[in-house]
Amino acid sequence: MQAEPTTSLVGEEYEVEIGPVAHGGHCIARTAEGQVLFVRHALPGERVVVKVTEGEEGARFLRADAVRILEASKDRIEAPCPFAGPGRCGGCDWQHAKPGAQRRLKADVLAEQLRRLAGLTPEEAGWDGTVVPAEGDKLPAGEVPQWRTRVQYAVDADGHAGLRRHRSHEVERIDHCMIAAPGVSELGIEKHEWAGMESVEAIAATGSQDRQVILTPRPGGRLPLVELDKPVSVMRVDEKAGGVHRVHGRPFVRERADGRTHRVGAGGFWQVHPKAADTLVTAVMQGLLPRKGEMALDLYCGVGLFAGALADRLGDKGAVLGIESGKRAVEDARHNLADFPRVRIEQGKVESVLPRTGITEVDLIVLDPPRAGAGRDTVKHLASLRARRIAYVACDPAALARDLGYFGENGYRVRMLRAFDLFPMTHHVECVAILEPAEKGA
User: Fold this and answer.
1) What is the DSSP letter of 88?
2) Sign of CA pseudo-dihedral 128, 131, 135, 139
3) Rounded-to-integer distance, Cα 184 and Cα 360, Å
4) CA separation for the pair 202, 180 (Å, rounded)
5) Model pTM score
6) How far apart are CA 89 and CA 130, in angstroms?
7) CA 136 – CA 147 distance, rounded (Å)
8) What is the mean pLDDT of each run of 10 residues along the chain (442 residues)?
9) In this structure, are strands 47-54 and 13-17 parallel, antiparallel, or unpaired?
């Protein structure tokens, strides 16, 4: 029996009242028939006309853009970026909101995720309810922080660099990205031609003059001669051989944080905001209060940012074990931490490597998992190690809240939570949660 054909609603317009913000850079509204709408380019309390961008009759929800503002929020401003707006660049979510309003929206999302997924109020999570801007980012409405030290440009069929539209492979041509860090903008990626390339990633290191571009060719595409406005090393992604390979220059950039220089290989993870690494190290160390001689774990350790900070504070008799799945990141971490004889870095997935270590007890744990979170089984294992404190660094409030719920099931409570606006103009927010055994809080 064939399924009934569905009727697409793409292009349909509705006049709606905008409800609360939701996780993902949109707000909730309903059609007159009660169908849920996820609306971008709107703000809570506004009355707008929306145009459906995805969905059909009977779907659980529709996606839509606010295309006409009938009653504007007091938090609305004209988007500073000429490439922002319905159907345009998908890189930013909140260009149309005042900076303070953006942070309140992020706080609302975090509070809702904590309540729904962890069963915690802000007070129970030790959170004051605010999202704190990075140093130097508190700017007047209409001004945009230039924070993005890594920008992935998509290349269109004509070889022009731009940014992808929201939930689309289409490329929005741009002549400048307002949130790009000065070190990225000065390369002039947008004014050069990139024939045969699928994408160009530009990296401007923090604390050094290192600049790098990583080219991903289309199938059969030949590398162009890269002549940019500033000295730069060039890497290429090789789909056949796998990995990222050096074309010329250094195969890494040098990033500076916590008083140390860190080598980060091409494609390796490093915080994108120039203030992020120091901000997060400070929050983690203030929360953990490491003591000389303690044993610590740094899980999903990347190139060793937190492992180095811990080793520095635990002294000669302390010890740190880092676990990281990326081969190149492990090589970088071992290089970066070579002056700490009591730091060991193991390669592999945390859920596989940690049980094999035979460790049954530690003093401190730092975990900075990928966007999906650590998961129930890993949290259960970590709780069994009875660390006196655990620092959980998270870029996704839903994954954080889920995992905090699992920690609660396994005898840990949240002592303190801090939220940082390290991705201005977007819906992303970075959090640091400090946990301790629940009996300590009794």
Assistant:
1) S
2) negative
3) 45
4) 10
5) 0.95
6) 28
7) 10
8) 76 98 98 96 98 95 98 97 96 97 98 98 98 93 94 96 97 97 96 95 96 94 85 89 87 97 91 98 98 98 98 97 96 98 97 96 98 97 98 98 98 98 98 93 46
9) antiparallel
Whole-number pLDDT of residue 239: 75
Q: List, for residues 295-322, the tens digit of each pLDDT value.
A: 999 999 999 999 999 999 999 999 999 9
Tokens matching residue 50: 């929306």
Residue 80 identity? P
Instruction: Please identify which residue in the block is written with the tokens 């904590």.
Output: 114
Q: How far apart are CA 27 and CA 48, in angstroms?
A: 12
> 380-394 pLDDT, tens per residue?
999 999 999 999 999
**Any idea which residue has 């998509």 for tokens?**
154
Select from 384, 381, 379 the least CA-distant residue to 433.
379
Catalytic (active-site) positions: 395
Which residues partner with 235 through β-bridges?
Answer: 214, 246
Separation of alpha carbons 314 and 58, rounded Å: 58
d(CA 46, CA 34): 18
User: Phi-psi bin for 267: left (phi > 0), alpha (psi -120 to 50), beta?
Assistant: left
Write down the residue that tokens 């490597």 correspond to: 353
What does the block give as tokens for 168? 């689309």
CB atoms near residue 219 (< 10 Å): 8
